[in-house]
């Protein structure tokens, strides 16, 4: 579904991502792990279009996407979340989720004057769709509240609901478990599994090793900008390069 061919991203003389190649198969929950500074987020930014690779090639569902803007990649069905979600704090949860769909008729000034009935009809559909996804992530009781009242974990769930509004086929999740209490983490994991069962593919950066080992098949391991290993949880745990690079010699 997603293929990276020798992706490199340099900043001056530093190669943050150095010749990384991998494939994300359709229908999988693929994990991406590695120590801080390994290049994981830089790689994510290249995949989502926030950064243009210095060299290499990215293909999504058979079409080349490296060099495309983030909005064009998003429109193709590849969405991403961020480690630190930043919703619009004074807008309601419902309003935040309704922002995501592209090409809304109401975004065109003239449409509100010439075809108000069409704009209103589309908005009613989007409201129902937004409520569906808000309910799916367990935030229905907070739908009318401003997003500023949400906890860190709830903001991650809001961000997931927001990207789901665009009907993505592949979602890049950046540390969904970071700073989340155990109860909400269980909710996030359950929602990822449910979405995957519905056909959505995931690539997940995560430092919570219990989450990665139980949820992700396969797992990609990066260190110092390079891909060390692609394997199962068992293979990753047993590989001495992973133990040395990721945990400094401690058991995984």
Task: Give the strand content.
Answer: 15-25%
Share of residues in helices: 25-40%
Q: Which shape, going by the Cα principal axes?
A: globular
The count of β-strands is 10
**SSE sequence, one letter per element:** EEEHEEHEHHHHEHEHEEHH
Radius of gyration: 19 Å
Tally of contiguous helical segments: 10
Structural class: alpha/beta
Distance between the termini: 29 Å
The whole-number mean of residue pLDDT values reads 88
Give a quick account of the main beta sheet: strands, pairing sense, barrel closure. Answer: 6 strands, mixed
Across the major sheet, the strand order is 6-7-8-3-9-10
**Which residue ranges are poorly predicted, with pLDDT under 50 across at least 5 consecutive positions?**
none
């Amino acid at each position: 579904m997603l293929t990276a061919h020798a992706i490199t991203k340099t900043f001056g003389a530093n190669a943050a991502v150095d010749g990384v190649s991998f494939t994300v198969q359709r229908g999988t929950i693929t994990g991406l792990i590695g120590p801080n500074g390994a290049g994981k987020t830089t790689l994510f930014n290249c995949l989502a279009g926030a950064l243009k690779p210095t060299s290499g090639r990215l293909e999504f569902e058979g079409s080349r996407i490296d060099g495309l803007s983030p909005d064009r990649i998003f429109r193709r069905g590849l969405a991403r979340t961020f480690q630190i979600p930043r919703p619009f704090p004074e807008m309601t949860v419902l309003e935040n989720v309704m922002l995501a769909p592209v090409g809304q008729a109401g975004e065109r000034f003239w449409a509100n004057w010439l075809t108000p009935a069409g704009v209103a009809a589309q908005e009613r559909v989007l409201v129902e769709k937004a409520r569906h996804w808000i309910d799916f992530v367990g935030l229905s009781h907070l739908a009318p509240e401003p997003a500023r009242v949400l906890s860190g974990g709830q903001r991650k769930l809001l961000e997931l609901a927001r990207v789901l509004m665009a009907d993505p086929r592949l979602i890049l999740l950046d540390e969904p478990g970071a700073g989340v209490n155990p109860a909400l983490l269980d909710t996030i994991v359950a929602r990822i599994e449910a979405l995957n069962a519905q056909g959505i593919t995931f690539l997940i950066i995560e430092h919570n090793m219990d989450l990665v080992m139980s949820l992700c098949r396969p797992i990609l391991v990066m260190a110092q900008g390079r891909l060390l290993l692609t394997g199962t949880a068992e293979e990753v745990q047993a590989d001495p390069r992973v133990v040395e690079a990721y945990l400094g010699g401690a058991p995984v």
